[in-house]
Design brief:
Layout: E1 7-12, H1 17-25, E2 34-39, H2 47-54, E3 64-67, E4 70-73, H3 75-85, H4 90-99, H5 102-123
Parallel strand pairs: 1-2
Antiparallel strand pairs: 1-3, 3-4
Helix pairs in contact: 3-4, 3-5
Length: about 130
């Protein structure tokens, strides 16, 4: 029997330097399958972006991960990244030690979101506005 490779989609804001660093550094254990990063500003027509819109998830409120046919946003996505990323590499070890606790992920996510918003403002980037008609 052929095994199906699981794909995890990490949807982030490509204008945000913090999000870009996370997308570049985040690596999953091979047992999870493939990681595909999607820049929400560029990949607007991707089927995962359509799933996000149907679920009415506002990407200006936080990153989204699609894994095993489920969408996770914000602190849920942060927690999932920590759990799935394991301890391979310094970034995953740090992420795992900080955010494997749902409570810590929930309490710290507003600060991470605030840092993202500040970085976007300093860069002069507007919002993604993925839920607004094109």
């Amino acid at each position: 029997m052929e095994s199906k490779t699981e794909i995890l989609y990490f949807v982030y804001d490509g204008h945000c330097p913090i999000c870009q660093m996370g997308a570049d550094l985040y690596r999953l254990r091979q047992s999870v399958g493939q990681l595909k990063t999607l820049d929400a500003r560029i990949e607007k027509d991707h089927p995962v972006m359509q799933d996000i819109a149907q679920a009415k998830l506002n990407l200006d409120e936080g990153m989204v991960i699609k894994y095993q046919n489920h969408l996770y946003q914000g602190e849920e996505a942060l927690h999932l990244m920590a759990v799935l990323g394991g301890d391979q590499g310094w970034f995953n070890r740090l992420n795992n030690s900080l955010y494997r606790s749902k409570t810590i992920a929930k309490r710290s996510y507003p600060f991470l979101k605030g840092a993202r918003n500040l970085a976007l403002k300093l860069k002069g980037s507007g919002k993604i506005r993925n839920l607004e008609p094109s």
